[in-house]
Amino acid sequence: MQGFPRVKTPCIGVCSTGIGDSVCRGCKRFAHEVIHWNGYTEEQKRIVDARLAQFLAQCVQNRIRVIDATLLAWQLQTQQVRHNPDHDPHCWVFALLKAGAGQIENPTEFGFEVDLRFRDVPLLALREEIDQEYFALSSAHFDRYHLVPDLFGEERVS
């Protein structure tokens, strides 16, 4: 597909698939996606990227609301935080939290607010909660849609 930018690897350099995880604790891709990433077409990479972005946005939205996407984008540019401008702005918030959650005192100055239920939770802890939920969601998706038991009790990747 021409006209689309190349999909960058979601790898963050802390792969856990080498120690037996079916879902990487770092990038949340499935083990077979990590292994075959360089052989995927751009369209296949886009499909994986879209799933990851959708899951991450969902997990962030459970705790955080973007109130000014323009301000958030400006802060990301100013702070030189790597993010995908094509993803949902809630993914941008997570990128910002990964880069410096401990340095953000007033989230509204960055274009987001924390849900009332979580306002007493430090942003560093909130980032970890989001990451754990993101991993759990990716793992549940893998378990539900990618492992098919056969009649002999063995599992195979579909």
TrEMBL record:
InterPro entries, A to Z: DUF1289
Pfam family of the protein (one): DUF1289
Protein name listed in UniProt: DUF1289 domain-containing protein
Organism: Congregibacter variabilis
